[in-house]
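Re: your question about Diguanylate cyclase

S., sorry for the slow reply, the queue was backed up all week. Below is exactly what I fed in.
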Amino acid sequence: AAKNAGGNRFVFYTRDMTDRAEARLRLESGLREAVAARSFELVYQPKVEASGGRLTGFEALIRWRHEGVPISPGDFIPVAEDTGLIIEIGRWVLEEACRTATRWALDHGPVPVAVNVSARQLADPGFARQVEQVLQRHGTPPDLLELEITETVIMKDVRHHLPTLNRLRALGVRIAIDDFGTGYSSLAYLRQLPVDVLKIDRSFVNDLPHAPDIASTVIALAQRLLLSTVAEGVETAEQRHWLAEAGCDCLQGYLISRPLSADAAEAMIMTAFACDEALPLSA
Ligand code: C2E
Ligand code: MG
Ligand code: MG
Ligand code: MG
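Result:
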């Protein structure tokens, strides 16, 4: 009986693995087609000042529907990374974000847009040149583009990434360390890195207000290094209140707004400018 059970388990296991392999292959070929057809979309999640609530910019987030079903970037970005498709997808995201930021700037006024950059893109020796060309092609003022790079990606090979980061910074784009606090940063490196913004990871914002140690530490560190802070994943009024009191600069999360379509984001920008809320840009 034991042997039988083991045998059944084995059969079950292989079928499960086959299913997963098939699902993965379908995802991969779906991604390839989507890249060729450019059938992705960007949504835009606002960031606001912690004190006062003025709009300070947006983060562009990619969206993809595969066979009619929305697939989360957490599921397909890793596949895009493994297959190298991320290079083309990343280029599309950059183009689309810069095109949109330029149009908004011309129609309403300057509003920065942040773009997420993956490990493979950052490691690509042509990346800084690509960013420069995209900015030129769309006539985008460099200070309207912010690049978000996760802490784990930057810190995994700081010395290798440093020249690229310096080149990007020299172009005039801003650099944010995303999901800060989840990796392990060498403080010595952090001081040398050409970064402007630390984004406090959602998991630490989620701990507020009862377990504030990490959020407090990141804010204090940023203040020491003259970096600005953005809290991601702000969902409650208590969290917002704590962050504003603690001196966090900007907030992002469902409490403020879900990610918006380009049209809805533009409507928000029009309201912000109409309310005479000059965006705090040259800061
Ligand atoms: P991220 O850059 O840290 O983005 C924040 C994620 O948290 C987004 O998920 C956003 O929709 C979600 N979020 C925002 N506010 C809240 C909140 O209050 N509560 C909760 N529970 N979630 C919130 P999304 O869009 O699914 O993206 C997941 C990750 O996928 C991103 O994390 C980023 O690492 C990656 N990603 C998204 N778009 C792109 C892209 O265009 N290129 C690359 N390379 N990566 C991307
Ligand atoms: Mg991000
Ligand atoms: Mg993040
Ligand atoms: Mg995150």
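The pocket of magnesium ion (ligand 4) is lined by residues 179, 201-202, 232 (CB under 6 Å). The CA atoms of residues 30 and 68 lie 11 Å apart.

Happy to talk it through on Thursday.
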